[in-house]
Each structure stands twice: as C-alpha cells, then as structure tokens.
Amino acid sequence: MRKNNISAVIVAYNDHSAVHRCIESLKGQVSTICVVDNSTIEDQFVYNLEEVIYIKNETNIGLDKALNIGVKEVLKRQIDWVLLLDQDSMVDKDMLSNMLNSFDNADDQNIAQIVPLVYDNNTAKYLPSLIYNKFSLEKIDKPQQDTFVDFQITSGSLVRKEIFNKIGFMDETFFIDYIDFDYCFRIKNFKYKILLSKDALLTHSLGKKSNKMGIQFIEHASIRIFYQVRNRLILMKRYGHVFPFFVISETRNLIFKFFKIIILENDKKEKLQNYFRGLLKGLK
User: Fold this and answer.
1) Domain of residue 161, CATH code
2) Which of 4, 74, 112, 225 could form a disulfide with 274 if both were Cys (CB 3.0 to 4.6 A apart)?
3) 264 and 170 share one domain
4) Is the dihedral of CA 276, 270, 125, 176 positive or negative?
5) Cα–Cα nearest to 197, from 78, 278, 81, 279
6) Number of folded domains in the chain?
7) Pick from 33, 11, 205: which is nearest to 118 by CA?
C-alpha cells in the first residue's frame, strides 16, 4: 500500500466521536491526517496519533474554507494524492489501494480524481454517481467495471496533488452544499476526468433520517435550505450554458424541495423563509 503518497483532510463539526471513527478507518492507509475543526461546542478534540495534524477554527467558517485550509496544509508534504473526507464517512480497509489500482489500470491517465462507491447508511442504498450529457443525465449505482463519471460527492474523493495548482481550490462563496458539483464541473471544464473505482467503498450518512406518513426521507437543518437553494441557482447560471440538462434537473429539484418542506419536513416556517431567501440571493 502506497500510504506515504496520500494525506487525508477531515472537516469536523460538533461531533468528535464521528471524527475518531473516521480516523480509525484510515489507519494504515495514509501517511498524514489533517483534521480541520469548525466545531462550536466546547468539547476538546484529542487524538494521540503522531500523523494527525489538528487545526481549530474559532468559528464555523464553512466546509469550503475548512477543506482549503486542510488541503493547503497537507500539500506542504511530499505526497501525490489528497483524500477529502466528511467526519461521518468511514473508509473501507481496501478503499485506497483499490482506488490507486484503478488509476494504474486506467486506459486514460488524464485523471484529476478517483472516487469510490458511496453507501448511504441512512437510505441503505448506494449513492449514484452522475454522468451529465448535454440534454440527459445518467445515474451509475454500482458499475461492473471502473467508469468515468462527471459527479460524485466530495467525501471519499482522492485528488491528484497537481490538480489544485491547475484548477484551484474549493470556491469559498458556497459555505456548504454544492461545493462538490462546482469542483466536478471545473474538472470537466479543464478537460480532466473523474474515475469511479468499482471496488472502492465508502460508507457515509447524508443528513438526518426522518419518517412521516410512512414516507422515509432525509432532512437537513433549516440553515442548509438557504445554501442549497442559493448555491443551486449559482451553479445553474454558471454551468447551464454548457450542461443545459443540469438546469432542467435542478429546477425540478427546487420545485420538489419546496413541496417536500410543506408536506413532510419540520420547522416549515423557518425553512420556507430560508428557501425564499436563498432564491433571492441566488437570482441576484
């Protein structure tokens, strides 16, 4: 295992036990781990491992800025790859070796990042990777072979070191949500590729699982609604001319989200306020 070639960046927020579990899953797979802590709780993070670098922010500065701080820190080291992780992700014991094997065996080496299959614990389903064509969208759940895709969530992404110099870091205007879409679209615009490794596995938890009227769904905090709506609109304007179907699919998702709040979610008033606030900001 070429663990000396890889550093991991984990963003923490108010759940240090989850960070500990994430770190445990990484043992023996990476040379260094940088934890960037956005937590607003008093609980102190303690981890007695030499390879763990800990950076505590005074406030929650957002996922985008925290990722950039961590990436810039690990890029000071002699590495080839940076692994990006959320705190509620768990890395399979062979995930990184399988990803690097996929890279070595790929016909096209113009690869910016490698992504794993992502199994969502809340839905008990694989989170599909996406392929955007001009007027269509293809979802890839569990391919039989390694596949080039256009989008996968940030957590679990293994990014080549030099890519950050060529296309930049995460856009710090987003705070949270749709950071991954933006970075994946930028990779595509720069003519690089994203490789989905069929044998690499990451387990993840996307939001809080709720159940109402016999319907199970994922529910996020009220403030997330603002960022989801605003950032959707930003990306629709930014990339819609290149991927028109992205605008079509995200318009549909915006409408669906509105009715989901009204019918299923809690804190309807506050969420609807954030929904319309996000619309106004995004349209501006």
Assistant:
1) 3.90.550.10
2) 225
3) no
4) positive
5) 81
6) 2
7) 205
Q: 167 and 274 share a domain?
A: no
pLDDT of residue 50: 76
Give the three-class secondary structure for 4: helix
Residues 133 and 194 in one domain: yes
CA dihedral 233, 236, 238, 241 (to 10 degrees): -150
Tokens 């109402």 correspond to 212
Residues 138 and 241 occupy one common structural domain? no
Query: pLDDT higher for 245 or 83?
Result: 83
SS3 46: coil
Backbone phi and psi for residue 179, each to the nearest 5 degrees, phi listed first: -60, -40
Q: With 90 as the cut, is the pLDDT of residue 211 above it?
A: no
Asked if 225 and 162 sit in the same domain, the reply is no
Say if strands 89-91 and 129-132 run parallel, antiparallel, or are unpaired. Answer: unpaired
- Do 229 and 192 belong together in one domain? no
Structural domain that includes position 248: 208-283
- 163-170's contacts with Cβ under 8 Å and 24+ in sequence apart are 163/112, 163/113, 163/187, 163/192, 164/71, 164/75, 164/82, 166/190, 167/112, 167/192, 169/67, 169/68, 169/71, 169/72, 170/63, 170/64, 170/65, 170/67, 170/68
37 — pLDDT class (breaks 50, 70, 90) = very high
Q: Helix crossing, 268-283 with 244-263: angle to 10°?
A: 160
